[in-house]
Specification:
Blueprint lengths: L20 H8 L3 E5 L2 E4 L1 H20 L3 E2 L5 E3 H7 L1 H4 L5 E4 L5 E4 L4 H11 L8 E10 L14 E11 L2 H21 L4 E5 L10 E7 L5 E6 L17 H11 L4 E3 L5 H5 L6 E16 L3 H4 L2 E3 L5 E3 L1 E7 L1 H11 L1 E2 L2 E2 L10 E5 L5 H16 L4 E4 L5 H11 L3 E5 L1 H5 L2 E6 L5 E5 H8 L1
Helix pairs in contact: 1-10, 2-6, 2-10, 6-7, 11-14
The chain binds adenosine-5'-triphosphate and magnesium ion (3 copies).
């Protein structure tokens, strides 16, 4: 992508409305634009990052055996009347009427709809286990939308729903998502800690919020420090191994971790003082086993091996991609701007032409640009007439992992400079060596 032809509306000043660093940087870099309160457009730079986050989420969901579909944003109120949640949901639900005066709503979540899809076609235990997910917009009329897309009214959610014959099978499905979440957040460059969450009348300990520690987080959290060293399950994890997944779950839930809602001061007090961590955190994911809460009122049953009908056991598993993007920035930035983990960076490298119009600089940059693109890299080519200082500041601000700087003097010697955004380390290489290193 040539910067001169791109759409990346950078702001020179810090936007006043932004209270936290991620919001400030997302506005400054032109990643997002607010269209009305808590409702955002994702501009091209932001869209690139969001797509990369979604791709990682999708890969890990698929690896764990979940199957992607797509459900609509608008739902009929009837389904929610069946489950009993239409009245209960309250003001967070955006209720709409169509021209026939039928009550509709903009989905805040999809348990009802997926249960309806399930019951209409699955009749036998032989079709189980089943886990269906989509990545789709949700709407919740949050009382206090804030921090940009961290808490917006319209937001993207990956929501998966599992269906099993028995509670034991459902726990295995839960553990699959537990492992998938550990891998997903790790690949996004984040250390997310699963913390016990309220299960309400369902009971048990199968609800976890995945929390990222950050001073600007809205949740108060308490946990044991040892989470920092726990191993992330490998990519070749056998998701069919009941015991294997259970041991990962057991390990990751063996030490104390709870949000303020579930906090038990006495249990926390038994941890040696130096190992206690009391901090603030951001909820980036939430998984929940809820048994027959929806299958019962909505009549989602399958025939079991005993020939009888059984209500299916369900769980739901959410991740917020549009919250993850600012969460990653909260975890990874410096005074000059964003520092993207390579896995979600909008571009792998930015080629900075220090003197557009200079034949040698232009030829060198074109060569780098083409070579990197041919190697499948996403490259931004700063071919603008901006001053050198502006170009460096922009490259730092948007946080692309590697800057390839082509100035007239170096180019005359057949060389370019590489700068690592994270460490600031610079090295001068021949053009050939630079291409080899980056491809
Ligand atoms: P919160 O406690 O922050 O209000 P929640 O518990 O209501 O979130 P869930 O219903 O568990 O959210 O939804 C699953 C995931 O969707 C959350 O873990 C979060 O990542 C994301 N999410 C929820 N609400 C929002 C929002 N208003 N803006 C952006 N992402 C959200
Ligand atoms: Mg909420
Ligand atoms: Mg919550
Ligand atoms: Mg939640």
């Amino acid at each position: 992508m040539r910067l001169s032809r791109y759409f990346m509306p950078i702001l020179k000043e810090n936007p006043k409305e932004a209270e936290i660093v991620s919001h400030r940087l997302m506005l400054r870099t032109g990643m997002i634009r607010q269209q009305s309160q808590g409702i955002y457009s994702w501009l091209p730079l932001g869209k690139r990052v969001l797509d990369k986050v979604n791709a990682i989420i999708r890969e890990e969901q698929n690896r764990a055996g979940a199957i992607e579909l797509s459900m609509p944003t608008l739902q009929s109120a009837e389904l929610w009347q069946e489950s009993g949640r239409y009245e209960d949901y309250g003001k967070e639900m955006l209720r709409i009427r169509d021209r026939q005066d039928r009550p509709m709503l903009y989905g805040p979540t999809n348990e009802e709809m997926i249960t309806d899809i399930f019951r209409s076609s699955v009749k036998s235990y032989k079709s189980l286990p089943l886990n269906l997910y989509h990545i789709q917009l949700k709407f919740r009329d949050e009382i206090r939308p804030r921090f940009g897309t961290m808490r917006s009214r319209e937001f993207l959610m990956k929501d998966a729903y599992s269906f099993d014959l028995t509670q034991a099978d459902a726990i295995h499905s839960y553990n699959k998502m537990f492992v998938a979440y550990l891998r997903t957040f790790d690949r996004l460059g984040l250390r997310a800690i699963p913390m016990r969450a309220d299960t309400g009348p369902i009971g048990g300990n199968h609800s976890h919020e995945f929390i990222i520690l950050a001073d600007t987080g809205e949740s108060e959290v308490y946990c044991h420090k040892s989470f920092v060293d726990f191993d992330i399950p490998a990519a070749d994890t056998d998701f069919d191994s009941v015991d294997g997944l259970q041991s990962v779950f057991d390990k990751w839930t063996s030490v104390y971790a709870a949000t303020s809602e579930m906090h038990d001061e006495a249990a926390f007090g038994t941890i040696p003082e130096g190992d206690r961590l009391s901090a603030r955190g951001i909820e980036v994911g939430h998984i929940f086993y809820f048994g027959t809460k929806y299958s019962e009122p909505m009549g989602a049953k399958v025939q079991g091996p005993d020939g009888k009908e059984h209500l299916v056991h369900m769980g739901s598993y959410g991740i917020g991609p549009t919250r993850l993007v600012p969460a990653i920035i909260e975890a990874s930035h410096d005074e000059n701007g964003i520092i993207w983990p390579a896995s979600v960076a909008p571009f792998d490298a930015v080629v900075i032409n220090m003197k557009p119009g200079d034949e040698a600089c232009d030829t060198t940059c074109d060569r780098l640009y083409v070579a990197l693109q041919n190697a499948g890299k996403d490259v931004l080519y700063d071919d603008t007439d901006d001053r050198a200082g502006t170009k460096f500041a922009t490259a730092d601000l948007i946080g692309v992992p590697v800057q390839v700087i082509a100035g007239p003097r170096a180019v005359a010697a057949g060389e370019v400079e590489l700068k690592d955004r994270k460490t600031g380390a610079r090295e001068t290489l021949t053009i050939e060596a630079a291409i080899n290193k980056l491809t």
